[in-house]
Amino acid sequence: MSSAQAVSIIKKISGAKKCGHMGTLDPFACGVLPIALGRATKLFDYLIDREKKYRAIFKFGIETDTFDLDGYLINTDNKRVTLDQINQILPEFIGIISQLPPKFSAKRINGQRAYELARSGQDVELKPSIVKIYDITVQEIGGNEFVFDISCSGGTYIRSICRDIAYKLDTCATMTCLIRQASGIFNIQDSCSLQELEQDFKIISCQEVLKDYIKCIIENEKNYTLAVNGAYFRAKTFSESSSNLAFYYNDELIGIGQKTKENLYKLDVILK
Fold it and tell me: Model pTM?
């Protein structure tokens, strides 16, 4: 299913008025898809760019127009790739890199998804984007196929890494499997299937999601009222940090915000 279909199902199960996912997962892929309910959807900008972890299988010697098995075969090559050859070039793909997203992607062009334009036969011109690759490891499984474990920033296309590694080795490749193993603090071990959620609907609290944020305490009702009405307020914290602050009142998370130059605070997102 698509990410949008998963959101639709969760919205129906939960009865939430607002529901949205924190980063598209291609229909071809499986794994972790964080979905926010209600006011938690306001956390999108804070969670979408968190580190992602993927396990993928790249098969060298074949290429489809989508760079996965959902596409049409457009190229073949008899070249056999070795593990040593891949490991020799992997350092070039670590760090901050520029990559060209696949034309069959969820990127928007003048308001339309790139894959919609590509499927209708239109020419798709996408601009390169800057992403960060934290780590890549690889192991051989035979049949000119290799398993890649990749840690990367949000917005990274694993299919593009597949394509670019193959081109660097003067051959072609297609991704035959993709599992998102983690998205920020959300990992596959703690994830639930839709069937499990239909039987026992569990929600991860915003407090748990923001547990790595610095805790700030609003000590009285006056400052609480100022905070939830978007005004500047005072709070207590043991940190000198001015950002990544989570604010609590009576042990309840009310929002995230930052410290001003005047030693006051202001909420960027109100969750109460």
Answer: 0.87
